[in-house]
Write a structure and sequence with these properties.
Helix content is 75%, strand content 0%. The chain is built from five helices and no strands. Helix 1 packs antiparallel against helix 2.
């Protein structure tokens, strides 16, 4: 008998599938909007499943957020940092993911927002590192072009 995937598995799958061939996803911003919608709907589904039981809902939600972070972390670690398009798109995905998570900070059904806040902070830190890497690379390319008399 096949195992029924949990919502956590679904969230991990959403992240993994989006990062797979991220540099080839077109039209990218439409795909990104779909990713954002899927992520938000799965997280909302968790809270809806535990309508009156806020404690269980919060625990399940926090577990799902941690699983999402783990999937994001794995995807980022597999990125080809030499591919500027991948790097730029991964940054956009992290920004959108963080925006979705921050929206849940105002959700009354989540009693313990510690995990949510911590994951949002980790995403922010990762965004900073990726942005730095992009700036560093573009600065290097400009210097090379200048040396070659192309810029």
């Amino acid at each position: 008998m096949d195992r029924v995937p949990s919502i956590e598995d679904s969230l991990v799958s959403i992240v993994e599938n989006f990062f797979k061939d991220i540099d080839k996803k077109e039209p990218f911003y439409m795909e990104l909007s779909q990713y954002r919608f899927s992520l938000k709907s799965k997280l909302t589904q968790i809270l809806s499943q535990f309508a009156g039981d806020y404690e269980t809902g919060s625990k399940s939600f926090n577990s799902a957020v941690e699983a999402t972070w783990k999937a994001l972390e794995d995807a980022i670690n597999k990125l080809n940092l030499e591919n500027e398009k991948e790097l730029e798109r991964a940054t956009k995905v992290l920004e959108q993911t963080n925006e979705v998570l921050k929206e849940f900070l105002y959700e009354d059904r989540i009693k313990d927002k510690g995990s949510l806040s911590a994951v949002s902070g980790r995403i922010g830190d990762t965004l900073e590192r990726l942005s730095y890497e992009m700036r560093r690379r573009s600065g290097l390319i400009k210097r090379i072009k200048k040396l070659l008399g192309m810029g």
